[in-house]
Specification:
The protein is an alpha+beta fold and about 350 residues long. A hairpin with a 4-residue loop joins strand 8 and strand 9. The longest helix has about 35 residues.
Length: about 350
Protein backbone atom coordinates (compact mmCIF):
# COMPACT_ATOMS: atom_id res chain seq x y z
CA UNK A 1 0.00 0.00 0.00
CA UNK A 2 1.43 3.35 -1.04
CA UNK A 3 1.45 6.31 1.28
CA UNK A 4 1.05 9.78 -0.22
CA UNK A 5 2.54 12.76 1.55
CA UNK A 6 1.68 16.35 0.92
CA UNK A 7 4.46 19.00 0.53
CA UNK A 8 3.46 22.33 1.97
CA UNK A 9 6.02 24.29 -0.02
CA UNK A 10 4.75 22.96 -3.40
CA UNK A 11 1.38 23.94 -4.68
CA UNK A 12 -1.09 21.45 -6.19
CA UNK A 13 -2.42 18.09 -5.35
CA UNK A 14 -0.32 15.10 -4.37
CA UNK A 15 0.17 13.86 -7.92
CA UNK A 16 1.29 17.29 -9.14
CA UNK A 17 3.68 17.64 -6.25
CA UNK A 18 5.20 14.23 -7.08
CA UNK A 19 5.75 15.19 -10.72
CA UNK A 20 7.42 18.42 -9.66
CA UNK A 21 9.75 16.63 -7.27
CA UNK A 22 10.76 14.03 -9.89
CA UNK A 23 11.41 16.73 -12.45
CA UNK A 24 13.55 18.73 -10.00
CA UNK A 25 15.53 15.61 -8.99
CA UNK A 26 16.22 14.64 -12.59
CA UNK A 27 17.28 18.19 -13.43
CA UNK A 28 19.68 18.30 -10.47
CA UNK A 29 21.14 14.93 -11.50
CA UNK A 30 21.68 16.11 -15.08
CA UNK A 31 23.37 19.33 -13.85
CA UNK A 32 25.62 17.30 -11.52
CA UNK A 33 26.62 14.97 -14.35
CA UNK A 34 27.42 17.92 -16.62
CA UNK A 35 29.54 19.62 -13.93
CA UNK A 36 31.48 16.42 -13.26
CA UNK A 37 32.03 15.90 -16.97
CA UNK A 38 33.27 19.47 -17.38
CA UNK A 39 35.75 19.24 -14.52
CA UNK A 40 36.86 15.70 -15.35
CA UNK A 41 37.18 15.96 -19.12
CA UNK A 42 36.70 19.41 -20.52
CA UNK A 43 38.68 21.47 -17.96
CA UNK A 44 41.85 19.32 -18.11
CA UNK A 45 41.76 19.47 -21.88
CA UNK A 46 41.15 23.21 -21.86
CA UNK A 47 43.97 23.93 -19.38
CA UNK A 48 46.44 21.37 -20.74
CA UNK A 49 49.72 22.94 -21.94
CA UNK A 50 49.99 23.44 -25.64
CA UNK A 51 53.15 23.36 -27.63
CA UNK A 52 55.74 20.86 -28.82
CA UNK A 53 55.40 17.43 -27.22
CA UNK A 54 58.66 15.56 -26.54
CA UNK A 55 59.20 12.07 -25.21
CA UNK A 56 62.43 11.84 -23.20
CA UNK A 57 64.13 8.55 -22.38
CA UNK A 58 66.47 9.15 -19.43
CA UNK A 59 68.66 6.93 -17.22
CA UNK A 60 67.20 8.30 -13.97
CA UNK A 61 64.61 10.70 -12.61
CA UNK A 62 65.57 13.61 -10.39
CA UNK A 63 64.20 13.73 -6.83
CA UNK A 64 60.94 15.67 -6.69
CA UNK A 65 60.18 15.58 -10.42
CA UNK A 66 56.49 14.79 -11.00
CA UNK A 67 53.62 15.69 -13.31
CA UNK A 68 53.42 19.46 -13.47
CA UNK A 69 57.10 20.06 -12.72
CA UNK A 70 58.53 23.00 -14.64
CA UNK A 71 60.93 22.81 -17.56
CA UNK A 72 63.58 25.60 -17.59
CA UNK A 73 65.68 27.04 -20.36
CA UNK A 74 68.28 29.66 -19.36
CA UNK A 75 66.41 30.14 -16.07
CA UNK A 76 62.99 30.82 -17.65
CA UNK A 77 59.97 28.48 -17.65
CA UNK A 78 59.40 27.08 -21.13
CA UNK A 79 57.20 24.08 -20.42
CA UNK A 80 56.21 21.41 -17.94
CA UNK A 81 56.27 17.68 -17.34
CA UNK A 82 53.06 15.96 -18.48
CA UNK A 83 53.85 12.31 -17.86
CA UNK A 84 56.28 9.94 -16.13
CA UNK A 85 56.73 6.21 -16.63
CA UNK A 86 59.35 4.38 -14.59
CA UNK A 87 58.13 0.82 -15.06
CA UNK A 88 60.88 -0.18 -17.52
CA UNK A 89 64.11 -1.26 -15.74
CA UNK A 90 67.09 1.05 -16.19
CA UNK A 91 65.27 3.91 -17.92
CA UNK A 92 62.61 6.51 -17.18
CA UNK A 93 60.18 7.84 -19.78
CA UNK A 94 59.29 11.49 -19.29
CA UNK A 95 56.82 13.41 -21.45
CA UNK A 96 57.24 17.19 -21.59
CA UNK A 97 55.53 20.00 -23.46
CA UNK A 98 57.63 22.98 -24.58
CA UNK A 99 56.57 26.39 -25.80
CA UNK A 100 56.77 26.64 -29.55
CA UNK A 101 59.16 29.58 -29.28
CA UNK A 102 61.49 27.69 -26.91
CA UNK A 103 61.28 24.54 -29.01
CA UNK A 104 62.21 26.58 -32.08
CA UNK A 105 65.42 27.76 -30.37
CA UNK A 106 66.53 24.21 -29.49
CA UNK A 107 67.83 21.26 -31.48
CA UNK A 108 67.86 17.57 -30.64
CA UNK A 109 71.44 17.95 -29.35
CA UNK A 110 70.33 19.73 -26.14
CA UNK A 111 71.56 18.51 -22.76
CA UNK A 112 69.40 17.93 -19.70
CA UNK A 113 69.88 18.02 -15.93
CA UNK A 114 67.88 18.41 -12.74
CA UNK A 115 68.30 21.47 -10.52
CA UNK A 116 66.31 23.64 -8.07
CA UNK A 117 63.77 25.95 -9.60
CA UNK A 118 63.98 28.47 -6.74
CA UNK A 119 65.49 28.99 -3.28
CA UNK A 120 62.89 26.67 -1.75
CA UNK A 121 64.45 23.67 -3.50
CA UNK A 122 61.58 22.83 -5.87
CA UNK A 123 63.07 20.56 -8.53
CA UNK A 124 62.78 21.40 -12.22
CA UNK A 125 64.01 19.89 -15.49
CA UNK A 126 66.70 22.16 -16.94
CA UNK A 127 67.51 22.20 -20.65
CA UNK A 128 70.87 23.39 -21.99
CA UNK A 129 71.08 24.42 -25.64
CA UNK A 130 73.99 22.92 -27.54
CA UNK A 131 75.31 23.63 -31.05
CA UNK A 132 74.54 21.31 -33.91
CA UNK A 133 71.68 18.89 -34.29
CA UNK A 134 68.31 19.13 -36.04
CA UNK A 135 65.21 21.12 -35.17
CA UNK A 136 62.73 19.58 -32.73
CA UNK A 137 59.37 18.35 -33.91
CA UNK A 138 56.29 17.49 -31.90
CA UNK A 139 56.11 13.85 -30.81
CA UNK A 140 59.85 13.29 -31.20
CA UNK A 141 61.64 10.86 -28.85
CA UNK A 142 64.97 12.03 -27.45
CA UNK A 143 67.32 9.67 -25.61
CA UNK A 144 70.00 10.82 -23.22
CA UNK A 145 72.69 8.66 -21.60
CA UNK A 146 73.26 11.07 -18.70
CA UNK A 147 71.05 13.39 -16.68
CA UNK A 148 73.15 15.09 -13.94
CA UNK A 149 71.41 15.61 -10.63
CA UNK A 150 72.04 19.07 -9.10
CA UNK A 151 68.99 19.14 -6.87
CA UNK A 152 69.06 20.43 -3.32
CA UNK A 153 68.11 17.06 -1.82
CA UNK A 154 71.06 15.38 -3.56
CA UNK A 155 73.39 18.15 -2.39
CA UNK A 156 72.24 17.69 1.21
CA UNK A 157 72.63 13.92 0.91
CA UNK A 158 76.18 14.18 -0.45
CA UNK A 159 77.08 16.79 2.16
CA UNK A 160 75.96 14.44 4.91
CA UNK A 161 78.16 11.72 3.41
CA UNK A 162 81.16 14.08 3.38
CA UNK A 163 80.48 15.19 6.94
CA UNK A 164 80.07 11.60 8.08
CA UNK A 165 83.45 10.69 6.56
CA UNK A 166 85.43 13.74 7.74
CA UNK A 167 83.86 14.87 11.01
CA UNK A 168 85.74 12.34 13.11
CA UNK A 169 86.72 12.55 16.76
CA UNK A 170 90.16 13.92 15.85
CA UNK A 171 88.55 16.63 13.71
CA UNK A 172 86.21 17.58 16.55
CA UNK A 173 89.14 17.77 18.97
CA UNK A 174 91.04 19.97 16.49
CA UNK A 175 88.04 22.29 16.16
CA UNK A 176 87.83 22.49 19.95
CA UNK A 177 91.50 23.51 20.07
CA UNK A 178 90.92 26.15 17.40
CA UNK A 179 88.01 27.59 19.35
CA UNK A 180 90.07 27.59 22.55
CA UNK A 181 92.92 29.45 20.85
CA UNK A 182 90.42 31.87 19.30
CA UNK A 183 89.00 32.60 22.75
CA UNK A 184 92.53 33.17 24.02
CA UNK A 185 93.18 35.70 21.25
CA UNK A 186 90.06 37.68 22.10
CA UNK A 187 91.88 39.97 24.63
CA UNK A 188 94.60 40.64 22.06
CA UNK A 189 92.07 41.56 19.40
CA UNK A 190 90.17 43.73 21.87
CA UNK A 191 93.41 45.48 22.83
CA UNK A 192 94.22 46.14 19.17
CA UNK A 193 90.76 47.64 18.64
CA UNK A 194 91.12 49.86 21.72
CA UNK A 195 94.62 50.94 20.66
CA UNK A 196 93.40 51.80 17.16
CA UNK A 197 90.52 53.78 18.62
CA UNK A 198 92.88 55.71 20.91
CA UNK A 199 95.19 56.51 18.00
CA UNK A 200 92.24 57.75 15.95
CA UNK A 201 91.11 59.96 18.85
CA UNK A 202 94.52 61.45 19.64
CA UNK A 203 96.03 62.12 16.20
CA UNK A 204 96.05 65.80 15.26
CA UNK A 205 97.43 65.68 11.73
CA UNK A 206 96.26 64.40 8.39
CA UNK A 207 97.22 60.86 7.38
CA UNK A 208 99.32 62.28 4.52
CA UNK A 209 101.50 64.15 7.05
CA UNK A 210 101.80 61.09 9.26
CA UNK A 211 102.75 58.93 6.28
CA UNK A 212 105.41 61.48 5.32
CA UNK A 213 106.93 61.26 8.78
CA UNK A 214 106.72 57.49 8.62
CA UNK A 215 108.61 57.65 5.33
CA UNK A 216 111.34 59.71 7.02
CA UNK A 217 111.64 57.03 9.68
CA UNK A 218 111.66 54.26 7.11
CA UNK A 219 114.61 55.83 5.27
CA UNK A 220 116.90 54.69 8.08
CA UNK A 221 115.82 51.06 7.83
CA UNK A 222 117.91 50.06 4.77
CA UNK A 223 121.14 51.13 6.46
CA UNK A 224 120.04 49.50 9.71
CA UNK A 225 119.23 46.28 7.89
CA UNK A 226 122.61 46.26 6.13
CA UNK A 227 124.47 46.71 9.40
CA UNK A 228 122.28 44.09 11.06
CA UNK A 229 123.07 41.65 8.24
CA UNK A 230 126.77 42.43 8.61
CA UNK A 231 126.54 41.76 12.35
CA UNK A 232 124.80 38.44 11.76
CA UNK A 233 127.40 37.55 9.13
CA UNK A 234 130.21 38.41 11.55
CA UNK A 235 128.61 36.28 14.24
CA UNK A 236 128.10 33.43 11.79
CA UNK A 237 131.66 33.57 10.42
CA UNK A 238 133.50 34.00 13.70
CA UNK A 239 136.26 31.73 14.86
CA UNK A 240 133.86 29.52 16.80
CA UNK A 241 132.14 28.44 13.57
CA UNK A 242 135.28 27.71 11.53
CA UNK A 243 137.57 24.70 11.35
CA UNK A 244 141.37 25.00 11.25
CA UNK A 245 141.31 24.65 7.44
CA UNK A 246 138.97 27.66 7.10
CA UNK A 247 135.80 25.74 6.27
CA UNK A 248 132.57 26.17 8.20
CA UNK A 249 131.92 23.78 11.03
CA UNK A 250 132.29 23.24 14.76
CA UNK A 251 135.91 23.11 15.93
CA UNK A 252 135.58 20.59 18.73
CA UNK A 253 139.20 21.01 19.80
CA UNK A 254 138.82 24.79 20.13
CA UNK A 255 135.59 24.41 22.07
CA UNK A 256 137.22 21.86 24.38
CA UNK A 257 140.10 24.32 24.97
CA UNK A 258 137.66 27.13 25.76
CA UNK A 259 135.72 24.85 28.09
CA UNK A 260 138.86 23.83 29.96
CA UNK A 261 140.01 27.49 30.17
CA UNK A 262 136.69 28.60 31.61
CA UNK A 263 136.74 25.71 34.05
CA UNK A 264 140.25 26.68 35.23
CA UNK A 265 139.22 30.34 35.50
CA UNK A 266 136.09 29.47 37.46
CA UNK A 267 137.68 26.98 39.82
CA UNK A 268 141.30 28.16 40.00
CA UNK A 269 140.98 31.95 39.80
CA UNK A 270 137.55 33.03 40.96
CA UNK A 271 137.26 30.05 43.29
CA UNK A 272 140.56 30.96 44.93
CA UNK A 273 139.48 34.60 45.21
CA UNK A 274 136.25 33.55 46.84
CA UNK A 275 138.10 31.30 49.26
CA UNK A 276 140.52 34.12 50.10
CA UNK A 277 137.72 36.62 50.70
CA UNK A 278 135.78 34.12 52.75
CA UNK A 279 138.73 33.22 55.00
CA UNK A 280 140.07 36.80 55.47
CA UNK A 281 136.87 38.81 55.66
CA UNK A 282 137.93 40.58 58.89
CA UNK A 283 141.43 41.30 57.54
CA UNK A 284 140.18 42.86 54.30
CA UNK A 285 137.66 45.16 55.96
CA UNK A 286 140.25 47.83 57.00
CA UNK A 287 141.77 47.79 53.51
CA UNK A 288 138.39 48.33 51.84
CA UNK A 289 137.55 51.08 54.31
CA UNK A 290 140.85 52.86 53.62
CA UNK A 291 140.25 52.71 49.86
CA UNK A 292 136.79 54.14 50.41
CA UNK A 293 138.15 57.09 52.34
CA UNK A 294 140.70 57.76 49.60
CA UNK A 295 138.13 57.56 46.74
CA UNK A 296 135.29 59.56 48.34
CA UNK A 297 136.95 63.02 47.88
CA UNK A 298 137.64 62.43 44.17
CA UNK A 299 134.16 63.50 42.92
CA UNK A 300 134.44 66.69 44.98
CA UNK A 301 137.88 67.41 43.53
CA UNK A 302 136.65 67.21 39.93
CA UNK A 303 133.47 69.20 40.63
CA UNK A 304 130.90 66.42 40.68
CA UNK A 305 128.35 66.11 37.89
CA UNK A 306 128.55 69.81 36.96
CA UNK A 307 132.10 69.37 35.66
CA UNK A 308 130.96 66.76 33.17
CA UNK A 309 128.35 69.15 31.77
CA UNK A 310 130.95 71.90 31.45
CA UNK A 311 133.40 69.50 29.82
CA UNK A 312 130.78 68.49 27.25
CA UNK A 313 130.08 72.18 26.58
CA UNK A 314 133.81 72.81 26.04
CA UNK A 315 134.05 69.93 23.60
CA UNK A 316 131.03 71.22 21.72
CA UNK A 317 132.59 74.69 21.50
CA UNK A 318 135.83 73.20 20.17
CA UNK A 319 133.88 71.54 17.39
CA UNK A 320 132.57 74.93 16.31
CA UNK A 321 135.88 76.84 16.56
CA UNK A 322 136.55 76.98 12.82
CA UNK A 323 134.07 79.04 10.80
CA UNK A 324 134.08 80.42 7.30
CA UNK A 325 134.84 79.03 3.86
CA UNK A 326 137.75 76.86 2.81
CA UNK A 327 139.96 79.85 1.80
CA UNK A 328 139.49 81.87 4.98
CA UNK A 329 138.69 80.04 8.17
CA UNK A 330 138.40 81.86 11.49
CA UNK A 331 139.45 80.27 14.75
CA UNK A 332 137.11 81.13 17.58
CA UNK A 333 138.01 79.86 21.05
CA UNK A 334 136.31 80.63 24.32
CA UNK A 335 138.14 79.25 27.38
CA UNK A 336 135.87 77.68 29.95
CA UNK A 337 138.50 75.63 31.75
CA UNK A 338 138.85 78.19 34.55
CA UNK A 339 135.32 77.37 35.64
CA UNK A 340 136.33 73.79 36.32
CA UNK A 341 137.29 73.63 40.05
CA UNK A 342 140.21 71.25 39.39
CA UNK A 343 141.75 73.84 36.98
CA UNK A 344 140.58 77.15 38.45
CA UNK A 345 142.64 76.73 41.65
CA UNK A 346 146.02 76.14 39.97
CA UNK A 347 145.41 78.99 37.51
CA UNK A 348 144.64 81.42 40.35
CA UNK A 349 147.82 80.39 42.26
CA UNK A 350 149.88 80.93 39.12
CA UNK A 351 148.47 84.47 38.83
CA UNK A 352 147.03 83.83 35.39
CA UNK A 353 143.53 84.84 36.49
CA UNK A 354 142.12 86.51 39.54
CA UNK A 355 139.54 83.81 39.97
CA UNK A 356 136.75 82.02 38.13
CA UNK A 357 134.15 84.29 36.53
CA UNK A 358 130.67 83.36 35.44
CA UNK A 359 131.28 83.90 31.75
CA UNK A 360 134.77 82.31 31.70
CA UNK A 361 138.22 83.90 31.20
Amino acid sequence: MSVNSSQDFIRGDVRGQSRTLVTAGLSALVVLVVVVAVFAVVYPRATAPRGTDLHLVLPALGPGVENGSRVLLRGAEVGEVTGIDATEPGVVHVDVVLDDQAAGSLTDSFQLDYRPQNYFGVTAVNLVAMPGGESLRSGQTVRREAAPDFTMSTMIERSSIVVDGTLTRDMIDSLDEVMRYANGLSPLIETAVIFTDKVARTQRQMPSTLLGKMNDLAEAFPGFNREAMKSLDAISNNVLNKLPDGSRGVDEAYHDLMDRSLTVAADGLFGAIGTLLGSHATDLTPVVTSIKYLVDPVPQMIGGGASMAKTRKAIEQLRNTFKGNEEAKTLQIRLLLDTVPAVAGPLARMGVVDGPRVGGN
